[in-house]
Design a protein that fits this description.
The structure is a single chain. The protein is of the alpha/beta class. It is built from 43 helices and 28 strands. Strands 16-11-15-12-18-19-17-20 form an 8-stranded antiparallel β-sheet, sandwiched between helices. β18 and β19 form a beta hairpin. α40 crosses α43. The chain is globular.
Length: 1024
C-alpha cells in the first residue's frame, strides 16, 4: 500500500484502523485450520490494514478510497465460518464490521427489525425480548455470529423447520456497491447479496422479519437407524405437525459429547453430566400453545418409526447446549468440517454411504427445513471429522471432505457455501441462473474486482487444486481412511515454555467467537488481540515458531480483568481465565517480561507497608469506630471470626469497612478485626504475575489470622474473599502449608441471619427508593454468591430492587482494576456501559459491594458525568439503621488523581518527559567523563552528535543504571511536580522509586531512547 493511500486511510479512520503486525495476523484467518499442503498455494493472508467503519457513510468513503487507490477490500463479520470467505487472499484491507452493531428500528406493528450488519444475534434477540418479540430463526452460532455475516454467506438455522432459510426472512438490505454508490435490495434482487460473501457489495443495513415471543417446549426422540430418523422427519412434514425447530445428532456425536469434559470452576466440575444414548437424537422445539397438538401426534409417529421418547433431562440438555456444536473439539483437538445440504428424502442414503466410504469417526448435527429449495424438504448437515491440525495426517483427513461432498452431490445435495474452497461448485450452491446474475452484476459494478476477490468465483490456483483433488478423490480416500484418529484430551508436554494443558487448550479453541462480544477487555478496545479467541490463536502461532513475544501481546494477557465471563461462554468448556492466570506467572515470573507498570509501584508499597496504596501500616486501622474497639478490636480478645477489610476499604473507601463492622455487630456476629497485622490479600500481585510477592503476602496473612486464634474469615471485598475462599487453599496445598480457614462474605452471614429470623432491619424513615444491583465478578461468577446480597437488599424497608438486563452469571464487568490502571480512558468507557445499564432500569442508585467496582464507578461517574448514585451495600444497609458515614467520593477522586498521573508517568512517553526536565543532572551524571565530552561535541562539533544517534540505543542501557542513583533526588522532585502525591506517599518515594525504576527501565528503554534522543541533542546544542 502506498504511503499516500495509507495516510489518507489513517485520516479517515483515526483510532479505528490498525497497521499493527500482530493485529493483522489475528485478522488473517477464520474458524477453520487451513491444511498445510494448501497454504503455499494460497500465500499469505495477512492484510495490510484493518479498518472498523462506524457508519454507512464511512463505508462509502472507504469503497471510494479503494477504487482510487486500487486496494482490495475483504469484509469480516465475526469470522465464525470456515469457508475462507473472510480471508484476505490478495491482502489489502480487512473491513471489520464490529462497530456497526446498532439496532436502528424495531417495528412492533409489522414484526420487523432493522439493524446494522455487525450486531450479534444473541444481543439482537435480547433487545427484541424487551418488546415481546423474538427471532423467527437464528444460526447455531447465535452467541458469536453477526446478522450481516449470515446474509452474506446465506444459510439456515434453528427455527428453519418453520421459517425456511435466512434469505426467506429478510425484507430488504441497504448495500454499499463496489462503485461507491448505495442501493436497497428487496425481493428477488436480494439473491444478488445473499450467499455472495460481499463480492457484490457491503451490507450496511438489513431489515428482517421477527415474531411474537412465546414460551417453548422441548422434546427429544431417539432412533436406532438413519432410516427411522428420516421416516420420522418426513412424517413431521407430511402431517404438518406445528413444530418450530428440528435438530438432530448422530450416534457418534452423542458418544463424543458423553466423553467431552464438562464446564469446570476452580478446578471442579460445575455442571451435571447428562448421558446420551448412542442413537440418532432428534430435538424438537414447539410453542407451548401447540403443545397438546404436538404431544397427541408424536406417540403414534414415534412408534411407527421405531423411535423412543427420551427423558426431559436429555431434551433440556440438548436444547440448552444447542450452540455448542463444536464441544467435541476439546477431545480432538481439531475438526475437519464437512457441511452440506441434501433433500430429506436422501438423508438415510447419504448417512449410510458416508459410513461405508469414510472410516474416520464423523460427528454430525443436522437441522431440517420444511420448505427448502423448490419447496422440497431439505436437511442441513454440519459434519466434522476429529483430527489434529499439528500432524501431517490432518491434510489427508481433510481430503475426506471431498468424499463426503461427492456423496451428497450424488444424492441431489450441494455444499453449504462456496467461500474460497468450493468456487468450482458455485453453480450447485447458487443455481445456474442466480450465479450468472451475480457474475453479471459483479462485472458491471466492480470491474477492478476490489471487493472480496477470490470468493464465490474463486482464486484460479485454488480452483485448480480443488478440481484436481476432486478428480483424485478415489485415490486420496484410502490414505485419509488409514490415518489413526485418537479421541480424548492428551496434554503431553509444554511447547516453547507454554504449559502442556494450555498447549492443548490453544488448539482445542474452536475460534467460534462466543467469548468475544461480552468480554470487557475486548469491547473496551475492539481489537481481536484483546479477546480470548485472539490470544488462543496467537499462542498457536507462537508455538509453531511464527511469532515472538512482544509487549503488545504480553499486555494483552496481562490486561484481562479476570471477570471469568469467557468461561461461561466458551463453546468447548475451556478453563480460559485459569489459563491466563498461568500465563501471567509464566510471562512475568519465569520469562521476565514487563508487567503493567503501576503494579511495580504497588509491589514496592506492599512489601514496605503491606498495602497497595502506599499508606503507612500504622494508619491502617484509623477508620475503626471507637465505640467498637473494645468489643471487636481488642488485642486481648480472641474470636473465631476475623474481619479482613482489604486495602481499599482500609485506606480509601472507609465507609465500606465502617459500615461492614456496624452491620456485623448489629446482627450479633462475634468477630475481631485484624487491623495493623493485616496485609493486602495479594490479588494485585497474583494478576501482575509477581507470584513471589504474592506468596510472601499470603503467608503473612495466614500467620496473622492464626496469631489471633481465628479459624474463619469474613470479608467485605470480593477479591479478598476470593483469595481466602479459593486461591489461598490451592496455593497452600501446592506449597505444603497447613490451611483450614473457612470464609464467608458478610452478605452471606447477614442473609443467613435474616433467613433464620435472627435479625430484621428496623423500620426507617427513608423516602422510598429504587435501587439496582451490580454483581461484582469476583463475588458472582468467581465465588457464586448471587442471592445473599439480594436477600439483604430486599429485607430493608422502603427499598425496591430492580435488576439490570445483564445480571448474575451474565453480569458485565465494571472494568476495574486491570483496565483502570492499564488504559484509564477505556476503563471509563467500560464503566459507563455498566452504569448506563443501571440507568436503564430506572433506579436512582446502583449498589455494589466491591471497593474496586465502586472506585471505578465513582471515577467513571465523574469522567462521564453519569446521572446515577453509587453506594456500597454495607453502607446502604447500615445507613438504613441510622448510622452515619463519611462520603468516600472526595478521597476517591484525590487518590485517582494520584494514580492517573502516576499511570501516565510510568510509560515511555512519561519517563521521557521527566528525563527531558533534568538534562543538566543527567549529562553531569554520565560516567567516565562522558558528560563533558557530550557537551563539547554539542557546542563545538554538533554534527558528531547526529552521527552518534545509532549508538544511543546501545549506550543508554549501559549508562543509565550508573546514572540513576546520582539523579534520583532530582527525578523525585520532577515527579512531584507531575504527580499530586499526598505527603505520606512523597515520604516513601525515595525508598520505592529506585526499585520501580530498576524493574521498569530495562523493558522500557528501547521505547524511551527514541523519544529523548532529539531533545537531548537539542539541549547539548543549546537549543533548549
Amino acid at each position: 500500500m502506498k504511503a499516500s493511500a495509507k495516510k489518507e486511510l489513517q485520516e479517515l479512520f483515526e483510532n479505528r484502523i490498525s497497521f499493527n503486525k500482530t493485529e493483522r495476523k489475528l485478522y488473517s484467518h477464520d474458524i477453520a485450520a487451513m491444511p498445510v499442503i494448501v497454504k503455499p498455494f494460497i500465500g499469505s493472508t495477512v492484510p495490510d490494514a484493518i479498518v472498523q467503519p462506524a457508519s454507512e457513510q464511512e463505508l462509502v468513503k472507504l469503497v471510494n478510497w479503494a477504487i482510487k487507490n486500487k486496494v482490495f477490500l475483504t469484509p469480516r463479520g465475526n469470522a465464525t465460518s470456515g469457508y475462507g470467505g473472510v480471508l484476505p487472499i490478495y491482502k489489502g484491507v480487512v473491513v471489520d464490521f464490529y462497530r456497526m452493531k446498532d439496532i436502528i428500528k424495531i417495528d412492533t406493528s409489522n414484526n420487523t427489525i432493522t439493524v446494522q450488519p455487525g450486531i450479534i444475534w444473541e444481543k439482537l434477540d435480547r433487545e427484541l425480548a424487551k418488546k415481546g418479540l423474538t427471532l423467527r430463526l437464528y444460526p447455531t452460532s447465535y452467541p458469536g455470529s453477526t446478522a450481516g455475516g449470515w446474509l452474506a454467506q446465506g444459510g439456515s438455522g434453528i427455527g428453519s423447520f418453520e421459517a425456511g432459510t435466512f434469505l426467506d426472512n429478510v425484507v430488504n438490505a441497504r448495500v454499499v456497491l463496489p462503485d461507491g454508490t448505495l442501493q436497497e435490495f428487496k425481493g428477488k434482487d436480494l439473491e444478488l447479496i445473499s450467499d455472495a460473501e460481499g463480492i457484490t457489495g457491503f451490507i450496511s443495513e438489513l431489515t428482517i422479519k421477527v415474531m411474537p415471543l412465546e414460551e417453548l417446549e422441548i422434546s427429544a426422540v431417539g432412533f436406532p437407524q438413519a432410516e427411522n430418523l428420516q421416516a420420522f422427519l418426513q412424517s413431521l412434514v407430511d402431517k404438518k405437525i406445528p413444530i418450530w425447530s428440528v435438530l438432530f445428532i448422530n450416534p457418534m456425536m452423542a458418544d463424543l459429547k458423553n466423553k467431552s469434559p464438562l464446564k469446570t470452576h476452580a478446578g471442579h466440575e460445575a455442571e451435571a453430566r447428562v448421558s446420551l444414548p448412542a442413537v440418532f437424537i432428534a430435538t424438537l422445539a414447539y410453542r407451548r400453545k401447540d403443545s397438546s397438538n404436538v404431544k397427541e401426534s408424536l406417540p403414534g409417529i414415534i412408534s411407527s418409526c421405531r423411535g423412543e421418547m427420551l427423558s426431559d433431562d436429555i431434551a433440556q440438555h440438548e436444547w440448552q447446549n444447542r450452540f455448542k456444536v463444536l464441544i467435541v473439539k476439546r477431545i480432538s483437538p481439531s475438526l475437519v468440517p464437512a457441511e452440506f445440504i441434501i433433500p430429506l428424502s436422501s438423508l438415510s442414503k447419504v448417512i449410510n454411504e458416508i459410513k461405508k466410504k469414510v472410516k474416520q469417526p464423523i460427528i454430525k448435527e443436522g437441522l431440517v427445513i420444511r420448505d427448502g429449495l423448490n419447496g422440497i424438504p431439505e436437511v442441513v448437515v454440519l459434519g466434522f471429522i476429529p483430527s489434529d491440525q499439528r500432524k501431517l495426517s490432518y491434510n489427508f483427513v481433510f481430503a475426506l471432505t471431498l468424499t463426503i461432498l461427492k456423496i451428497a452431490e450424488k444424492h441431489g445435495g450441494r455444499p453449504y457455501a462456496t467461500g474460497m474452497y468450493f468456487a468450482k461448485k458455485a453453480e450447485r450452491v447458487l443455481g445456474k441462473e442466480r450465479l450468472a446474475r451475480i457474475n453479471k452484476f459483479k462485472s458491471e459494478k466492480d470491474p477492478g474486482n476490489l471487493l472480496n476477490p477470490g470468493k464465490v468465483n474463486g482464486k484460479k490456483i485454488i480452483n485448480i487444486i480443488m478440481g484436481t483433488a476432486d478428480f483424485l478423490e478415489p485415490l486420496i480416500r484410502p490414505i485419509g481412511n488409514s490415518m489413526i484418529t485418537k479421541i480424548g484430551e492428551r496434554p503431553v508436554k509444554s511447547v516453547r515454555g507454554i504449559p502442556a494443558d494450555v498447549v492443548w487448550y490453544a488448539y482445542s479453541c474452536s475460534q467460534c467467537g462466543y467469548c468475544v462480544p461480552e468480554c470487557d477487555q475486548f469491547y473496551g478496545r475492539g481489537w481481536e488481540s484483546q479477546s480470548s479467541r485472539g490470544r488462543w490463536y496467537w499462542l498457536r502461532e507462537y508455538m509453531e515458531g511464527r511469532e515472538k513475544w512482544n509487549q503488545y501481546m504480553v499486555d494483552s494477557f496481562m490486561a484481562c480483568t479476570t471477570c471469568e465471563i469467557c468461561n461461561t461462554k466458551c463453546s468447548v468448556n475451556l478453563p480460559i481465565e485459569p489459563s491466563w492466570m498461568k500465563m501471567r506467572g509464566l510471562l512475568i515470573k519465569d520469562m521476565n517480561k514487563m508487567t503493567i507498570p503501576p503494579f511495580e509501584m504497588m509491589s514496592e508499597a506492599l512489601q514496605k507497608e503491606g498495602d497497595i496504596w502506599a499508606g503507612y501500616r500504622k494508619n491502617r486501622d484509623e477508620w475503626f469506630p471507637e465505640d467498637l474497639r473494645e468489643k471487636h478490636y481488642n488485642p486481648d480478645k480472641k474470636s473465631d471470626i476475623a474481619y479482613f477489610a482489604g486495602c481499599t476499604a482500609n485506606y480509601v473507601e472507609h465507609d465500606i469497612a465502617m459500615a461492614t463492622v456496624r452491620l456485623l455487630d448489629s446482627t450479633g456476629v462475634d468477630f475481631s478485626y485484624l487491623g495493623k497485622i493485616e496485609n493486602c490479600c495479594g490479588i494485585p500481585m497474583l494478576v501482575a504475575g509477581k507470584w513471589d510477592v504474592f506468596v510472601q503476602t499470603m503467608k503473612k496473612n495466614i500467620n496473622a489470622v492464626k496469631s489471633i486464634g481465628a479459624s474463619s474469615i469474613v470479608a467485605s471485598c470480593p477479591a479478598c474473599d476470593l483469595m481466602w475462599r479459593q486461591v489461598y487453599p490451592q496455593w497452600a496445598k501446592k506449597l505444603g502449608i497447613d490451611y483450614d480457614i473457612k470464609v464467608k462474605h458478610y452478605s452471606e452471614i447477614v442473609a443467613e441471619k435474616i433467613r433464620k429470623k435472627e435479625f430484621a432491619f428496623p423500620d426507617n424513615n427513608m423516602a422510598p427508593i429504587t435501587v439496582t444491583w451490580h454483581d461484582s465478578c469476583h463475588i458472582g461468577r468467581a465465588s457464586g454468591v448471587y442471592d445473599a446480597p439480594r436477600e439483604l437488599i430486599s429485607a430493608i424497608p422502603n427499598v425496591t430492587l430492580v435488576e439490570m438486563d445483564y445480571n448474575k452469571e451474565e453480569a458485565h464487568c465494571c472494568g476495574s482494576v486491570l483496565t483502570l490502571i492499564k488504559d484509564p480512558p477505556i476503563a471509563a468507557e467500560v464503566g459507563k456501559m455498566r452504569l448506563d445499564e443501571a440507568i436503564e432500569t430506572g433506579a436512582e442508585t446502583v449498589l455494589a459491594l466491591c471497593p474496586c467496582c465502586e472506585f471505578q464507578f465513582r471515577v467513571t461517574k465523574e469522567k462521564k458525568n453519569t446521572p446515577i448514585e453509587i453506594a456500597d451495600l454495607a453502607r446502604f444497609a447500615s445507613s438504613a439503621m441510622g448510622f452515619k458515614f463519611p462520603d468516600p467520593s472526595p478521597e476517591v477522586q484525590r487518590q485517582w488523581a494520584v494514580f492517573e498521573a502516576m499511570i501516565a508517568l510510568m510509560t515511555p512517553r512519561g519517563f521521557a518527559d521527566i528525563m527531558c526536565l533534568m538534562w543538566p543532572e543527567l549529562i553531569n551524571a554520565m560516567p567516565l567523563r562522558m558528560g563533558g565530552m557530550m557537551r563539547f561535541m554539542g557546542s563545538k562539533l554538533p554534527g558528531m552528535l547526529q552521527l552518534m544517534k545509532p549508538l544511543f540505543p546501545v549506550l543508554f542501557p549501559l549508562l543509565l543504571p550508573k546514572m540513576m542513583p546520582k539523579v534520583m533526588d532530582t527525578m523525585l522532585d520532577k515527579v512531584a511536580l507531575k504527580v499530586p502525591m499526598p505527603d505520606y506517599m512523597k515520604e516513601q518515594m525515595p525508598a520505592i522509586m529506585p526499585k520501580v525504576m530498576d524493574n521498569l527501565m530495562p523493558h522500557m528503554l528501547k521505547d524511551v531512547v527514541p523519544l529523548i534522543t532529539r531533545p537531548m541533542i537539542d539541549y547539548l546544542r543549546g537549543k533548549s
